[in-house]
Amino acid sequence: MRIPFFFAIYGRVLGLLRPVRGLAITLTLANLALAAVPFLDPILFGKAIDLLANAAARGAEATFHDGVRIFGLWTAVGVGGIGARILVSLHADRLAHRQRQNVTAMFFEHVLQLHLAYHRRSHSGRLLKIMLQGGDQLFGLWLSMFREHLSTLVALLVLLPMTILLNWRLATLMIVLITSSALLTGYVTRRTLSAQGEVQAYHTDLAERAGDAIGNVVLVQSFVRLSAEMRMMREVIERLLSAQFPVINWWAVVSVLQGAVATITVISIFAVGAWLNLKGEATVGEIVTFMGFATHLIGRMDQVVGFVNSLFMDIHGLKEFFEVLDTPSAVCDRPGARPLENVRGRVEFDHVNYSYEPPRKALDDVSFMAEPGRTVALVGETGGGKSTAMGLLHRQDDPQAGAIRIDGVDIRDVTLDSLRAQIGVVFQESMLFYRSIADNLRVGQPDAKDADLEAAARLACAHDFILRQPRGYQTRIGERGANLSGGERQRLSIARVLLKNPPILILDEATSALDAATEASVQQAIKNLKQGRTTFVIAHRLATIRDADLILVFQEGRIIERGSFSDLVRQGGFFAQLVATQFQNPAAAEAGRAPDAIAVSVPSDNM
Ligand SMILES: Nc1ncnc2c1ncn2[C@@H]1O[C@H](COP(=O)(O)OP(=O)(O)O)[C@@H](O)[C@H]1O
Ligand SMILES: [Mg+2]
């Protein structure tokens, strides 16, 4: 890892200030003024001393005249400095605070738009840590930059070389000493950068593990995993510390040497200055001026080292932060995309091909048509491509070949938001927010009235159990619905979709996780939900899809059979076999399913 990487990251940190560049530029100018003050002070001080030293030779009137000029300048510098200081202390903090919140919000929005495949790969604990830590680090960098580092930079890069004009011998001495301490800092930074990267990786690992364990606390407790989880945590901590300590040692060396350089600089300027004075090559005023410079610049160098050190400690965290920001979002609107409106609900898959990781195909030439208001069932073994097909319908991603159309319009030609507004999904895992029941239901329609909520809850067979909760609709749901049963959670997600009221519906194994009795109670809710909507049902229990208008049998990404339940049974193919095994197997058939099996063998056409 090299030094340019450092500047690249720092450049991006500054680039995030673009939205507030007016204020940033004002603060920069104020910092320039602040940088100049500590240089002008010793110069004027040195001039005053020389003036007094030569007073006898030059006469009272000339001395008085010059004295007024110096004093006037000095006052102006002081007042200007105070003004700049007021500006900086009032606005640097505000800018840093505001931009931290803005950038955190931007990161949050970006992360929520990222491809679902990305979210499946990376842990939420990790993203959360990167977001919060990145916000903190950016805040610290901006604040310290506008409070001190900008003026330090100016002091070192511009004003330090300008001291050559005052007395080139003393200036050269000072520049050599200060440059050597800067080189030392640079050297240590380079030496320890990759070790610090390792430390950062352990920090992220720690956040990931903690998030994972806390998220699965039920598992941890029931499998008595507490000590094992703690042991794993301690191992990471041990590794983190053993990577961190050598880095800290190096920086301790820097700090000690820095102190030594400071002392050497002050002493040698005094000694060389005295020697030059004896030879008549430096005045007493110049020595005083350079002593002032030296003590000031040494303080600044300490700041620079502190800053490089903190940027160095943060740099890998910031790199992670920017990496997430640089990850392209999932699908986005085409230029000129129009909203999808007044949908009747005719869905067409036209030779759709899709692959997560080529060349392995998740969908291979899938074509079918779903008529408005009808029910299409997708069945077949796990991994057959059913969820993938439905994911493409609400544009989790776009197919590599072929097209998906709603009412004849290619879904890539409409805006993403309007497309997703037309589609309701009930997943196997009912995802619920850590908010009240009412808030969770309003996810589908933020401005729904209480009466609408209740009507939807009644249709979803959820109203009664909601009223049994301690605070009714205002009861807060535990994280991911922890204080509700599976059937209750699922009825809430059905009510949520009922409120959204989309013409197209996807039920992706909506009842697979429920036991037979609970499923029966949810089935009524689903029946109410399906009313008048084009519905796609993915189900493993074939009894639940007996009345589908069209059944598609998926295998390894292809549709191998299609037709109504009775047609497929009559064909005697893969599906018929599936039906036979399911209804013969008492475990799969479960209580109350046996009559279905009998009905299957006597195909009826009333579907
Ligand atoms: N995010 C993903 N990344 C890579 N491969 C995936 C991903 N999701 C699913 N797959 C693969 O795609 C195939 C189809 O999966 P899926 O559509 O979930 O099947 P089904 O819903 O029929 O069980 C499977 O082989 C699965 O492993
Ligand atoms: Mg699936």
Can you characterise this structure?
- The structure is a single chain.
- By secondary structure, this protein is α/β, with parallel strands linked by helices.
- 65% of the residues lie in helices and 9% in strands.
- The C terminus is likely disordered.
- The site of adenosine-5'-diphosphate (ADP) has 13 residues, from helix 5 and helix 11.
Concise overview:
The chain has 607 residues and is of the alpha/beta class. It has helices spanning 3-15, 21-53, 55-58, 60-113, 116-121, 124-162, 168-215, 217-222, 226-278, 284-326, 386-393, 416-421, 437-441, 450-459, 463-468, 486-500, 516-530, 565-571, 574-584, 586-589, 594-601; strands at 347-354, 363-370, 375-380, 401-406, 409-410, 423-426, 504-508, 534-538, 550-555, 558-563. 31% of the residues are buried.
Assign an overall shape.
Answer: elongated
In terms of per-residue confidence, which ranges show pLDDT below 50 for 5 or more consecutive residues? 588-607
Cofactors, ions and other ligands in the entry: adenosine-5'-diphosphate, magnesium ion
Label the CATH architecture of the largest domain. Up-down Bundle
Structural class: alpha/beta
CATH superfamily of the largest domain: ABC transporter type 1, transmembrane domain
Q: How many individual domains?
A: 2
Major pleated sheet = 6 strands, mixed
Distance between the termini: 67 Å
Radius of gyration from the alpha-carbon trace, in angstroms: 36 Å
CATH domain fold name of the largest domain: ABC transporter transmembrane region fold
Record the strand order, biggest sheet.
Answer: 6-7-8-3-9-10
Number of strands: 10
> Roughly how much helix do the residues carry, as a percent range?
55-70%
CATH class of the largest domain: Mainly Alpha
